[in-house]
Specification:
Blueprint (H helix, E strand, L loop, with lengths): L2 E4 L5 H12 L3 E6 L4 H6 L5 E5 L5 H14 L5 E4 L14 H22 L7 E5 L12 H21 L4 E7 L6 H13 L5 H17 L3 H13 L6 E4 L1 H9 L4 H26 L8 H11 L1 H15 L17 H20 L2 H6 L1 H5 L6
Length: 371
């Protein structure tokens, strides 16, 4: 019987992975944070062996390493799923919060893998990274950076150790998990008020939408099981239409990535403002359009200030249409390749609407299956 070690096994992607691996006959050492979750995990199956690990507490990581090393002869796969999201404007976000983000999503993950590495000889490490590792999500910079650092460190580990342990990064898009609600609860203070309040309100609303509308975690879990059982897995897997779109965007020059991201952020925040005004309609006798117009008249000054602030913060330096993109590249083949990518993005804009393609990618994710 094969043995897997899994962190973050109590909910979301981790719990779906746990159940997929049990069904496939694995014995799974399943990590939990809260002692109350131990019985819940043990009740799932006799194949589940719960262990405590809290990535914010170094001593629990060390204890988990010791416990597992004493219990198994060999680990076939280590799956690092546990993590957290720190969000907020970098202008005001505490650096200690950023350190906490890296401790959980990067450093503790590496320490845990180091402690089990000898038992993983001939096995695999599968890290749950994110499309955020491509680094283009404002106000989620700590999360993006921690996932990018995770990928970079483990990529180097794979090269340094040769074929001893296969190390794979899984980069899903938006997943419908409790992580989003937890992120909202933990980051309200970080997001704050003041000039960033309008953006904070959008981020919270978007996170709550993601918690229900994202890709089913079972889709990711099945892919992880497939990777674990694959003799020659790829180094990286991108799962979900939205993740693949972000991967494509990441190939653009940074200047144009910034323009597109700023454009999208301003557009979506303004859309959220209008939605909020419609939802607050106190009477059914007034049409949505009329109510929005009335609200804008009644609160014209603060609304104008909010929109002006957004334009000031994120005003694009140039239009994002293809005709404004000039690629200075002496390599003709690479130039053509980049031009094709620009054209594909522009085609998406005029076909289904580039903004809509990214915002509504969740629906496409439901039927998407990574090769």
């Amino acid at each position: 019987m094969k043995t897997a070690v899994l962190t973050g096994a109590t909910s979301g992607i981790g719990n779906s992975i746990l159940r997929e691996f049990i069904d496939d006959g694995y014995t799974v050492y399943a990590g939990y944070r809260d002692i109350r979750q131990k019985k819940e995990l043990a009740a799932i199956s006799s194949q589940v062996i719960p262990f405590r690990i809290d990535l914010t507490k170094k001593w629990t990581v060390e204890d988990a390493i010791k416990t597992i090393n004493q219990s198994v002869e060999k680990i076939d796969v280590l799956i690092n799923v546990a993590g957290k999201v720190i969000a907020g404007p970098l202008e005001t976000l505490s650096v200690n919060k950023i350190r906490e983000q890296f401790e959980v999503n990067t450093f503790a993950q590496l320490e845990f893998a180091q402690g089990l590495f000898e038992k993983l000889d001939g096995g695999k490490i599968i890290n749950m990274s994110s499309m955020a590792s491509y680094g283009m999500f404002p106000f989620l910079a700590p999360y993006c950076a921690s996932k990018k650092a995770l990928d970079m460190l483990f990529n180097s580990l794979r090269i340094e150790t040769g074929t001893k342990v296969k190390i794979i990064s899984v980069k899903p898009g938006v997943i419908a998990t409790p992580l989003w609600q937890k992120a909202v609860d933990e980051n309200r203070e970080n997001l704050g008020a003041g000039k960033y309040k309008v953006v904070a309100d959008f981020l919270i609303a978007n996170a709550m939408k993601n918690s229900s509308d994202g890709l089913n975690p079972v889709v990711v879990a099945k892919k992880v099981l497939q990777i674990a059982n694959c003799e020659k897995p790829k180094n990286s897997y991108v799962i979900g239409f939205d993740a693949k779109g972000v991967q494509l965007l990441s190939k653009l020059p940074q200047k144009f990535i910034d323009v597109i991201v700023e454009h999208q952020l301003v557009k979506r925040v303004k859309e959220q403002l209008n939605k909020v005004m419609v939802i607050q309609n106190p009477t059914d006798s007034v049409s949505e359009q009329t109510f929005v117009e009335q609200e804008k008249q009644e609160t014209s000054e603060p609304d104008q200030e909010e929109n002006n602030h957004l334009d000031t913060l994120f005003e694009p330096e140039t239009d994002i249409s293809l005709e404004h993109i000039d690629i200075n590249n002496d390599n003709a083949e690479e130039n053509n390749s980049q031009q094709e990518e620009f054209e594909e993005i522009e085609e998406q804009k005029h076909d289904d609407g580039f903004e809509s393609a990214l915002q509504d990618a969740i629906d496409a994710n439901q039927s998407d299956r990574e090769d």
